[in-house]
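Reminder to self: tokens first, then the designed residues, so the page reads top to bottom the way the pipeline ran.
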């Protein structure tokens, strides 16, 4: 290769500092973070890590493959692009079991790479944003609590005792999104133990008339917020158990998290939402969010909402 390095090799010790530096370099060049927390935190689940190193031992390319969802993410150092590293990483990821690839920001190079492998869009996420100074303040937590129907309450994350309930709700809420809905206890703990985690930013929605003798049984939803190093707030995960959807809970739960981010001083809040989630899109538009960019999940084979297209 023109970069002078070696082809992709599977490694278990790529090094988080090197991966984060590579991700930051790509973000600075492309305006989109190329790797999700699944890749950056590397929580395990027999995940596969593929790396391309230059002769000067600089990480030129990296791919992460989650064997549960069969989803991969990859990034190539801007200075090392144009030498076939992306093609080699995709080929190696497919060999490792990947069938879907995220293109964060859906850059032209990613679209060209998808065409090269006969991959087609299977899912699109919109990145929405709102500027806090230009939008009305969301209701305070007491006001959000007051807006909840009788029999529900909001509270702060109480620690590991909540984990079983959070995982149950997460799995039920995202059954059709395997990269999110397949979270394990290890995945959850990796995020709780991350340096950005704030227990005040994880709001738990309880149903007060549920069987409290079963761990986590009363948890029916949660709003997990995140503050990035640049001060941008994020609606990290917003989940409701399907059994309580339609109970007018999404609005108060969303507003409670937004109020928490405003108290943290976030001047801008972002979130990702599936392009097909019309109900959520309407809610976020009412709250002042506008679309900023799209992330596309490409499937080789290729998988589309209508099924698999053989030989695409």
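Designed residues (312 positions):
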């Amino acid at each position: 290769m023109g970069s002078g390095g070696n082809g992709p090799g599977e490694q278990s010790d790529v090094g988080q500092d090197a991966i984060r530096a590579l991700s930051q370099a790509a973000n600075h060049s492309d305006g989109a973070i190329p790797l999700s927390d699944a890749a950056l935190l590397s929580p395990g689940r027999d995940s596969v890590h593929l790396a391309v190193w230059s002769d000067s031992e600089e990480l030129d390319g990296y791919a992460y493959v989650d064997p549960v969802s069969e989803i991969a993410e990859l990034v190539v150092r801007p200075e090392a692009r144009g030498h076939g590293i992306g093609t080699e990483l995709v080929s190696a990821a497919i060999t490792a079991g990947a069938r879907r690839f995220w293109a964060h920001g859906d850059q032209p190079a990613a679209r060209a790479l998808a065409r090269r492998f006969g991959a087609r869009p299977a899912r699109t996420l919109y990145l929405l944003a709102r500027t806090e100074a230009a939008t009305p303040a969301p209701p305070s937590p007491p006001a959000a609590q007051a807006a909840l129907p009788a029999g529900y309450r909001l509270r702060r994350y109480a620690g590991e005792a909540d984990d079983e309930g959070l995982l149950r709700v997460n799995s039920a809420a995202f059954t059709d999104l395997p990269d999110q809905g397949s979270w394990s206890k290890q995945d959850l703990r990796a995020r709780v133990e991350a340096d950005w985690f704030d227990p005040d930013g994880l709001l738990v929605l309880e149903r007060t008339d549920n069987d409290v003798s079963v761990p986590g049984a009363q948890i029916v939803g949660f709003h997990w917020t995140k503050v990035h190093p640049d001060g941008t707030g994020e609606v990290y995960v917003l989940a409701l158990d399907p059994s309580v959807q339609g109970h007018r809970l999404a609005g108060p739960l969303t507003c409670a998290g937004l109020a928490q981010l405003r108290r943290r001083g976030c001047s801008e809040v972002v979130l990702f939402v599936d392009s097909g989630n019309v109900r959520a899109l309407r809610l976020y538009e009412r709250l002042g969010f506008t679309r900023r960019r799209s992330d596309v999940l490409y499937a080789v084979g290729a998988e589309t909402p209508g099924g698999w297209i053989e030989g695409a």
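The chain has two domains: 9-124+297-308, 136-287.
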